[in-house]
Amino acid sequence: MTDELSSYIGELISQPPDRFTKAEKLELLMWHPLFTGKCPRCGQKLSKTIAECDCGWKGEESNFALKIRDPSCD
Questions:
Q1: Which of 1, 51, 52, 64 is 20 to 30 A from 9, comparing alpha carbons?
Q2: HSE-up of 42 (CA within 13 Å, CB side)?
Q3: Can you list the pairs that 1-5 forms with residues at least 24 positions away whose Cβ atoms lie under 8 Å?
């Protein structure tokens, strides 16, 4: 947990612990199709939706939202 305090309606509240480390956050930004606009499988630019790619990759939110890429899958 961080030592930072915030206030809500004049009451001090502590911040919850970070879910990911800084390295994991950077990895997510560099890989996730929402941030890159590219297919995580083939690297092709995705259309307006990030749900499907011509290579057959289908991104279901439950499968890739906020998950860190597993390098062993490369």
A1: 1
A2: 11
A3: none
